């Protein structure tokens, strides 16, 4: 009986055409290990598998991706690049300059699918290599950084409205603290300190100030008196955090707001992915509002870069991934879980929640009023060395007794040294 089966199998094999079919394959390096993040990523993994793709998962946990960036660097130095990696902003072009990126693997897909017509010029330009000639990365979303998240019950029972100025925020936080509630859920890790800092800078300094400081790296703005005021507000915020804050992960901080242990969190809208994953609804269980600013909007586009790889199966894997990432339905489903809004311009917002709809509307307003600005804390504005220099000073100030004016001076000096 066994022998008969073997013979049948051998005959079947002999009759199979000799063209070898290798399934598309991709090793994907990312840092999406939080609840909402993992749920969103699974949409892509499932779509890839449904097209016979073999996904080799390379997660490097650590919010904001600082740890992932280090692992990635080590892999590139060892000449062992993954097929795709989650990277953003100018870091994409930085890697291209090193000659390790493979723009022409996915550019054909982008041309065929007309990505130039599906994306805003701003988003598209972040995705291109070879002096803007070819797509080398695919965008999956637009996250907004400058958000405050609040537990609705906590605000209601303390008679507090969502603040719309930083003075109102401080007054609300003072009241909550007097009532024994932690005003601000925060995890003091360098990237989280920088996330809060850039939202404060946008509000306290304004759009032009933000651009001059964190896009143009203007020394006088970095070290000046407005920057001192930004650090003053950071010092205030530090006083609203709890003793357990240092080192806490961002999603644990979101959990404190969900449970009502803390009232507010200042964080990008991946925090909404956590609320959503726990079946909490905006307007009912929690409130979202932009941090106070003058029609500002700090954007953060998650994207995947495609490196030079050997083997047809890997190149095919890259092409399939790129095409799926830009899929219309994928960008809807993924972003509903992730908390962001689609990077594609033609996805209907009908099924999105009120916070996403607000993000989408505010993005347009900010665009027309000069307030649409790249997040430096999330790698959209600056190269890694400058981002790191600013982040280090911000977190040092937040976790010490450094004066605000010393911090501003140190900021300007650190940026200068990093250039
Ligand atoms: C951001 C990233 C988001 C989210 C967040 C926390 O940099 O753009 O997608 O993952 O970090 O990990």
Automatic annotation (TrEMBL):
Transmembrane segment boundaries: none
Compartments, as annotated in UniProt: Periplasm
Keywords, in A-Z order: Signal, Sugar transport, Transport
Source superkingdom: Bacteria
Disulfide bond residue pairs: 129-136, 288-355
Binding site residues for beta-D-galactose: 31-32, 37, 64, 88, 300, 302, 338, 378
Protein's name in the database: Probable sugar-binding periplasmic protein
Naturally occurring in which organism (per UniProt): Pelagibacter ubique (strain HTCC1062)
């Amino acid at each position: 009986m066994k022998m008969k089966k073997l013979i049948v199998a051998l005959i079947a094999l002999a009759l199979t055409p000799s063209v070898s079919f290798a399934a598309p394959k991709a090793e994907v390096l990312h840092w999406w290990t939080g609840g909402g993040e993992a749920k969103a990523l699974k949409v892509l993994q499932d779509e890839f598998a449904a097209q016979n793709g073999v996904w080799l998962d390379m997660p490097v946990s650590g919010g904001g991706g600082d740890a992932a960036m280090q692992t990635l660097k080590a892999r590139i130095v060892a000449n062992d690049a993954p097929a795709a990696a989650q990277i953003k902003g100018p870091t994409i072009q930085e890697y291209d300059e090193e000659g390790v990126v493979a723009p022409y693997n996915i550019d054909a897909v982008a041309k065929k699918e007309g990505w130039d017509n599906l994306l805003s010029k701003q988003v598209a330009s972040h995705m291109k290599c070879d002096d803007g000639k070819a797509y080398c990365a695919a965008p999956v979303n637009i996250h907004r950084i400058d958000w405050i998240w609040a537990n609705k019950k906590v605000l209601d029972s303390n008679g507090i409205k969502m603040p719309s100025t930083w003075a109102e925020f401080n007054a609300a936080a003072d009241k909550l603290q007097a009532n024994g509630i932690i005003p601000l859920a925060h995890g003091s890790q360098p990237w989280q300190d920088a996330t809060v800092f850039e939202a404060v800078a946008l509000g306290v300094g304004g759009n032009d100030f933000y651009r001059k400081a964190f896009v143009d790296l203007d020394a006088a703005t970095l070290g000046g008196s407005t920057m001192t005021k930004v650090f003053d507000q950071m010092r205030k915020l530090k006083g609203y955090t709890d003793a357990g804050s240092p080192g806490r992960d961002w999603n644990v901080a979101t959990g404190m707001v969900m449970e009502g242990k803390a009232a507010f969190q200042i964080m990008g809208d991946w925090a909404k992915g956590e609320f959503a994953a726990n079946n909490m609804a905006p307007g009912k269980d929690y409130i979202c509002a932009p941090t106070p600013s003058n029609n500002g909007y700090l954007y953060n586009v998650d994207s995947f870069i495609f490196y030079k790889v050997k083997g047809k199966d890997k190149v095919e894997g890259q092409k399939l991934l790129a095409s799926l990432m830009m899929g219309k339905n994928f960008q809807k489903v993924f972003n509903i879980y992730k908390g962001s809004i689609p990077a594609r311009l033609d996805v209907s917002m009908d099924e999105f929640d009120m916070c996403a709809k607000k993000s989408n509307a505010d993005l347009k307003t900010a665009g027309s009023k000069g307030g649409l600005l790249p997040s430096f804390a999330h790698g959209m504005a600056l190269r890694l060395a400058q981002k790191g220099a600013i982040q280090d000073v911000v977190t040092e100030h937040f976790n010490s007794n450094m004066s605000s004016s010393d911090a501003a001076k140190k900021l300007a000096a650190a940026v200068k040294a990093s250039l």
